[in-house]
């Protein structure tokens, strides 16, 4: 296969793992955002693998300050650009730990104040840069280094925090979820977020082969399975209302779970039927909440279940 | 020279207005609040073309300044005590990124126990953050140090943020006669901010990258070098200010009655006003006492201090802070540690007095008692402890 060596705004040569979902998110969002963009990064995998001094993967102006303050830094940039009469897009790219946990204060402030910024959270469902610790985005029963499955534990005890709705509740005019497995959809959402005045938010599901435990060649397949099982839902919210949802013919959650080492304890040494049923219930809940199920006409040769 | 009687905070806000920051980002906290209230009013009345960000915390206040300065705008913030403590992480970051700023500190004690009253523990605790730290004795100096602070911080030989420290309540809430420069005078002295680098789509740079052990040490060295260059830039800019407006700030240590002094007091901030009055009284009583006042704590003017203290018999340091646990069985404040360091190798005894913490009033008679204690060779202790409540 011919490899396109044309370097993009997110330059080749960074140090991400092969098959890194976050790196793909970085490349795709910047393709959509374009050259007239100032990027603010939180501390995290993307910051570290893209900017080992004196090298940088960023061909647009880029700043990293701290772990939890990217949205406050972005507020200051947007404010300065406004006074200077400049028009660059201000886009934050931050991981789920930086977004759902440690940065909530700053994000809440920035969104409440109504800065014209776009915040993209690459959600790889744990603190990957420090070695796979659970975050508020870690799914139920996932084994991480701080929520390990053990003799008396099935892993992470809580479902994912619903950050998109928290930000929609701040009055954000545009909130969307996306997946790196659907690049065109993700890029369209980034573009829409940037072109919507005010603080906008896109949370992109970014599977992490290292942290979740799957082969780096399967990143897109895993991302697709998350959508196809209903454990991740791609949707858009305009002014707080869900306006568009990715519909699927749902597969059982086992198909997603069994591909990843972080859920291995649900299958070995014994099949944890009860736990898998709970995860299936989360997917069913998502399906009902967002109406993602495509109802196929019943096949005549199959008995209804 | 026209003088106006103004509250310290209002005078500072008026000075900040004349510095024309494009972004003001601050959060209310006693005793700093009057400054940011006054600035909000100034912006609301169209007297300053700035974007005023009403952040949700001091942490975000300074983080927004990082963004604003990185994007090429002059910015401003003010805080104190707990607010400054909340900014701790951003303070180191901003200096490391070499982003210039002026932030006013209305000095206040740090809890626990909660105290809204003055000492200098807050800014002193940020000693190693890389910021310039300037301390004002009175409100005129507080005002002038804002003009000087911006000019020095933004100088390409320096490029470091600066704290202009003035004592909470004692100065911030006190009405004093102040000469306010006109906008034209300030504009002539302080040109618009010209960043060396800024976030700009026309010329992309990466700021705040991570450094491996191969590079980190050199970043710290460069920042320290900038502090050292700031010593000279402070003198230069302070001199220029004096030539233009008649108030000379070229000296980073001020000597008062030091010509024949046997006992030298060393202090920073508003306590120096009281100390000067005490010295005047002691002089009439025949005591050879003088004061060396530090205007800059970072960078620390070691050589200037050493020269100012040459020939004295003893030194008494008034520390409005305490480095808890320092000094073995005795007590030490951060200023005394610096003074001892500057005088290393000399035989002049340096005795320290931890004084006025948490707003405890320091009166003329207290300064006299400190001098008496120093003459008796008794020091390196808390002064004025109420032993009955221990």
Q: What is the fold's blueprint, element by element?
A:
The complex is a heterodimer of chains A (305) and B (390).
Chain A: H1 21-33, E1 37-41, H2 45-50, E2 62-64, H3 70-84, E3 89-95, H4 96-101, H5 104-113, E4 118-123, E5 149-150, E6 153-154, H6 163-168, E7 174-179, H7 183-195, E8 200-205, H8 209-212, H9 219-228, E9 235-238, E10 241-245, H10 254-257, H11 273-290
Parallel strand pairs in A: 1-2, 1-3, 3-4, 4-8, 7-8
Antiparallel strand pairs in A: 5-6, 7-9, 9-10
Chain B: E1 4-7, H1 8-18, E2 23-25, H2 33-44, E3 51-53, H3 58-70, E4 75-79, H4 81-86, H5 88-96, E5 102-107, H6 121-124, E6 132-135, H7 139-154, E7 162-167, E8 175-178, H8 183-189, E9 206-207, H9 216-245, E10 253-256, E11 263-267, H10 271-284, E12 289-294, E13 296-298, H11 302-309, E14 314-319, H12 334-342, E15 350-354, H13 364-375, E16 381-382
Parallel strand pairs in B: 2-3, 2-4, 4-5, 5-7, 6-7, 11-12, 11-14, 14-15, 15-16
Antiparallel strand pairs in B: 1-8, 6-13, 10-12
Helix pairs in contact in B: 1-2, 1-7, 3-5, 7-9, 10-13, 11-12
Give me the strand/helix succession of chain A. HEHEHEHHEEEHEHEHHEEHH
> How helix-rich are the residues of chain A, as a percent range?
25-40%
Domain count of chain A: the total is: 1
Tally of DSSP helical segments of chain B? 13
CATH fold name of the largest domain in chain B: Rossmann fold
How far is the first residue's CA from the last residue's CA of chain A?
44 Å
Morphology call of chain A: globular
Chain-averaged pLDDT of chain B: 98
CATH architecture of the largest domain in chain B: 3-Layer(aba) Sandwich
Report low-confidence residues of chain B grouped into runs of 5 or more: none
Q: Globular, elongated, flat, extended or rod-shaped: what is the shape of chain B?
A: globular
The beta-strand count of chain B equals 16
User: How many separate helices of chain A?
Assistant: 11
* DSSP strand content of chain B: 15-25%
**Main sheet overview of chain B:** 7 strands, mixed
